[in-house]
Amino acid sequence: MDVKIESVSVRNAETIALASFSSKGGTGSLKLMYTMERLGDGWHIKRPPGKTEEAAYRELEDEDGIKFKVRERSILATPGGRSFGLTGFGLVDSKGRFIELELADRTAVDGVIVTKEFGKIILKSMNPDVYMATETQIGKMHAYLSARSGK
């Protein structure tokens, strides 16, 4: 079996790593995302890998009333990973105003954008941009937009 680390993103005491597993000489591979935390001098898996966490995420639909905007992104060359740098990321309110969110990291790895307000937002695909969030995040985003609608 071949194991390859596709990408690694370090944010303070947390790391997100994407690993791929394939049989020797095989054509397909299995990719798993690991979230690790620093404990003492080493890194430890924070929660089991797999679809458990991602299962809570769903694609945002027009009916959700949540729209994101990326001010600018630049593709970063990383071996095997899909990474891009962000100069600005935020929500768009019902009047079309851009509300910038604070990013935990200006680099998005494998479509994972981490905001300080809402945590991980997943960019599932580009052109058009398709985002994924949890129901809890969607509720918080609605409250966030409502609180700013009069400003």
Structural account:
This protein has about 150 residues and is mainly β. The protein has 2 domains: about 1-55; about 60-150, no CATH class. The chain is built from 2 helices and 12 strands. It has helices at about 50-55, 135-150, and strands at about 1-10, 15-20, 30-40, 40-45, 60, 65-75, 85-90, 100, 105-110, 110-115, 120-125, 130-135. The protein has a 4-stranded antiparallel β-sheet, with no helix packed on it. It has a 4-stranded antiparallel β-sheet with strand order 5-12-11-10. The longest helix has 14 residues, at about 135-150. The protein is globular. The model is unreliable at about 50 (pLDDT under 50).
Evaluate the radius of gyration: 17 Å
Total helices: the number is 2
SSE ordering: EEEEHEEEEEEEEH
- What distance lies between the first and last C-alpha atoms, to the nearest angstrom? 56 Å
Biggest sheet: strand arrangement: 1-2-3-4
How big a fraction of the residues is strand?
A: over 45%
As a percent range, the share of helical residues equals 10-25%
Name the shape in a single word.
Answer: globular
How many domains make up the 3D coordinates?
Answer: 2
- What is the SS-derived class? mainly beta
How many E-type strands?
A: 12
Average pLDDT confidence is 79
Q: What are the low-pLDDT stretches, counting only 5+ consecutive residues below 50?
A: 48-52
Q: Describe the main β-sheet briefly.
A: 4 strands, antiparallel
